[in-house]
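Today's session is about reading a structure prediction critically. Students often jump straight to the picture, but the first step is always the sequence itself: look for stretches that repeat, for charged clusters, for runs of hydrophobic residues. Only then move on to the predicted structure, which in these notes is written as discrete structure tokens rather than atom positions. Here is the chain we will use throughout the hour.
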Amino acid sequence: MPPHSTEHTGDRIARYRKLRHLTQNQLAERAHISYSMLTKVEQGVKPATPAVLAAVARALSVQTIDLTGQPYLTELQADELDGLIHPIREALDLYDLGADPQIEPRSRTVLAAEADQLCALVRDTRLKDAARALPALIEEATTSVHMAPSDRSWRTLASLYRTAYDVTSKLGFPDLCVVALDRMAWAAERASDPILAGVRQYLRSLVYLRAGAYRMGQRLVTVGMNTLSEGASGWERDVTTGQLHLGAAVLAARSGDRDTAAGHIAEARRLAEVTGEASRVHWLSFGPTNVSVHAVSVLAEQDQYAEAVQAAQGLTIPDGWAVSRASAHLAEVARAQLWIGRPEASLRSLQQARELAPQQMRYHPMVRETVSGLVSARRSTPDSLSNLAHWVGI
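Below is the predicted structure for this chain, in token form.
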């Protein structure tokens, strides 16, 4: 079995801090975080929040993935996922080569159905299955659209590029997910689909959210809103607009603007009352449930962990809701539970997240941070936590 890394995020922060010849006090001042917070994170006593990670990364002039250690190559190799990334990279580079004479594409209907199935696999967190099928389908859809271009064919190709974004971002390859979004923009423009273009701006804003560039993320949400206004009014536009409001709420919360975050949540909730649960509209999982999940996330992003845990207790995830979203919500709750001194509850939430979505949770940096914090907080480590720590590579 491949060896596991014993280095956690706090170790990496300390290593880069020393390379920059900074004391803990100096780094805390540069990052605008408390000295106490930084020392706890470096020691691994508390999990680094996404906001802290982003602030420290900016102060150290590194990327957040340099601090989280992504991509987690040892685990990717163990799961035989590392070999699936390069074919996706190659498929994304075929967009302007025209039709491949060795490929005879199937009908538009079949290709659209298969692209939709890949979206479903990602929502079900079957990342390996999606990654394995994706490159060949991109190649076939690319040939199809060059041989017989149509709005439907371009939408199918845009959907496949979106799946490439989903897979690569979840597995920790941010450079590749940016390429996928560029290709998605290229296809959406040719499909003349403002709704699809708005979805792309939403996904792009999430890239900047993860990088800690909140102002840029907020600008992209605004561009997405303006783009959506060019589309036909109705259910699909309301769903996409609501999801953009949810993204804007998290961006505002991460940047410390509580009032703006609350306003976006309120507007998303208003739209969700109109749309109802709309999980399959561009696979955004928008609706009342996602609004409530994001409300918990906004509280956690504002370090209101007790309030976040309380809000989560009153939330019921409906049967059949997207596994990818449900597991990410549980990981968020686990982090909040650890921060308020409830390690046993945090461990239970992580175990539930793992049971729901093992492939996604194994590569989720928040899960690793929380597991690391649980290990550091316990004088003796129960078998259940030891197993979880080994599984994520700690």
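Discussion point for the tutorial: The chain has a mean pLDDT of 93.
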